[in-house]
Automatic annotation (TrEMBL):
<dbReference type="InterPro" id="IPR022537">
    <property type="entry name" value="TRSP_dom"/>
</dbReference>
<dbReference type="InterPro" id="IPR011214">
    <property type="entry name" value="UCP020967"/>
</dbReference>
<protein>
    <recommendedName>
        <fullName>Phosphoribosyltransferase</fullName>
    </recommendedName>
</protein>
<dbReference type="InterPro" id="IPR041688">
    <property type="entry name" value="PRTase_2"/>
</dbReference>
<dbReference type="InterPro" id="IPR029057">
    <property type="entry name" value="PRTase-like"/>
</dbReference>
<dbReference type="Pfam" id="PF12500">
    <property type="entry name" value="TRSP"/>
</dbReference>
<dbReference type="InterPro" id="IPR000836">
    <property type="entry name" value="PRTase_dom"/>
</dbReference>
<feature type="domain" description="TRSP">
    <location>
        <begin position="270"/>
        <end position="395"/>
    </location>
</feature>
<dbReference type="Pfam" id="PF15609">
    <property type="entry name" value="PRTase_2"/>
</dbReference>
<feature type="domain" description="Orotate phosphoribosyltransferase-like">
    <location>
        <begin position="1"/>
        <end position="219"/>
    </location>
</feature>
Length: 427
């Protein structure tokens, strides 16, 4: 548990598998999404091999078994009985949603919502996450057929507390892309009986059915308020003799881009603009090639891979295939009280202006000094050098042997601090 710096909701469940605030074994995080996929398949079709769900759950509980469990489940090439559009919620569920979609070999499509306003693009779905620090959600599907032709819509979130966010998107979707049945998948479901009654009311109002599947279900009660917690700051002390190297790596030639004409294009395979099952094999191949080449650049045995904001799944997949001793986590928009005491989930954290948009504050949590040899910072698009410096200054205090900044858009900048490596399909 942790305390949010948020008047609307004062608490936060800090997941041990999400890969956001706490570093995790990447295969365990992927398995959390795969587990939801298996429960969905069982609900839709009922012909799942009996050993798969226990295998997935055991891999989450015992992370050392996660890789073998993940590979065994993915080898079954599961197929959906009908066309399904998966929608992952930004920010924290973009990776879980993608992992759910990626479990199925056929009949699926995936898109995740975003807090970003993308110039020149129209949002097809607009809804609010009322308790959040960033309320508005947008959805930029490039192909309307992903939503119009899908027989079933499956919403994926990391946690349902009241369920208002899910109800908001269903209400907006039903007016544009009406469906008879919706499924909601979440790691945690904390809805009270009153909250569940709101679901039943919306079902009756719209003439639809809503099913909720979670790994854990229960109820919570909250006493007190995070507003009573005094703010704490953590000083950044840079070691004068630190000799870390920074390498700037470009992966653009291995991945397709959604808007290739842009100077700094988004990735097509991120899920922000929509994917189908037909994209799955090409994406997996690109991940394996990129991970193999990144693994060769590791200098030590302890490595942290860091995704940025909504850009979570591709970095997580790369981390999973970069060898032993790799952990994964991501930066976030969520402001949390940091308290250095036993049993508290977020002991240290640093705010910084987001390199992509300095008007937005991001945070990096639970990164202690001297724990890792290498750190890989994954960024979907190249950014101006000056905008990256606040985050790099934080990383420089962590006593790393090497910091790798990995971009997925074409190189337009000549970096001054060190050699930029171009890793492309041709070499």
């Amino acid at each position: 548990m942790a305390a949010r710096i948020n008047k609307k909701r004062s608490f936060l469940f800090v997941s041990k598998v999400l890969g956001k605030h706490i570093p995790v074994r990447p295969y365990a995080s992927l398995l959390s999404g795969v587990s939801l996929s298996l429960l969905l398949q069982q609900a839709l079709q009922g012909n799942l091999p009996n050993h798969l769900i226990p295998l997935a759950m055991q891999g989450i509980i015992e992370p050392l078994q996660a890789e073998a469990a993940y590979k065994e489940i993915m080898s079954h090439q599961l197929s959906l009985p009908q066309s399904v559009a998966f929608i992952g919620f930004a920010e924290t569920a973009t990776a879980i949603g993608h992992a759910v979609f990626q479990t199925f070999a056929h009949n699926g499509s995936y898109i995740h919502t975003t807090r970003e306003v993308i110039e020149g693009s129209s949002s097809l779905i607009n809804f609010s996450e009322e308790h959040s620090h960033a309320v508005a959600h947008y959805c930029y599907a490039q192909d309307l057929n992903l939503l119009t032709q899908a027989e079933l819509v499956v919403l994926v979130d990391d946690e349902i507390t009241t369920g208002k966010t899910s109800l908001n998107i269903i209400r907006d979707m039903q007016g544009k892309f009406p469906k008879k049945v919706y499924y909601i998948l979440a790691l945690l479901d904390w809805r009270t009986e009153d909250d569940q009654e709101q679901f039943r009311k919306l079902e009756s109002e719209l003439g639809i059915t809503i099913h909720v599947i979670s790994l854990i279900k229960g109820e919570v009660s909250v006493l007190g308020s995070s507003e009573s917690i005094p703010p704490q700051t953590t000083e950044l002390i840079h070691a004068a003799d630190q000799k870390e190297l920074i390498h700037y790596t470009y992966m653009d030639q291995l991945f397709e881009h959604a808007d290739a004409a842009s100077r700094r294009p988004y990735l097509r395979h991120s899920g922000r603009f929509g994917l189908t099952s037909a994209d799955r094999a090409q994406f997996d191949e690109a991940i394996t090639q990129a991970a193999n080449r990144l693994e060769q650049t590791r200098t030590g045995t302890k490595t942290l891979c860091v995704g940025t904001g909504e850009f979570m799944y591709i970095p997580m997949r790369l981390a999973a295939e970069m060898g032993e001793g790799v952990r994964y986590q991501s930066t976030t928009r969520s402001p949390i009280h940091c308290i250095d005491r036993e049993g508290y989930a977020v002991t240290v954290g640093y705010p910084y202006p987001a390199p992509e948009d300095p008007e937005v504050t991001h945070f990096l949590y639970n990164l202690p000094v001297g724990l890792y040899d290498d750190l890989y910072l994954f960024m979907e698009r190249e950014v101006d050098p000056a905008a990256l410096q606040p985050l790099l200054q934080i990383l420089r205090t962590r006593r790393l042997q090497r910091i790798h900044v990995v971009f997925f858009s074409p190189q337009t900048i000549e970096w001054k601090e060190t050699e930029a490596w171009q890793i492309g399909a041709q070499n």
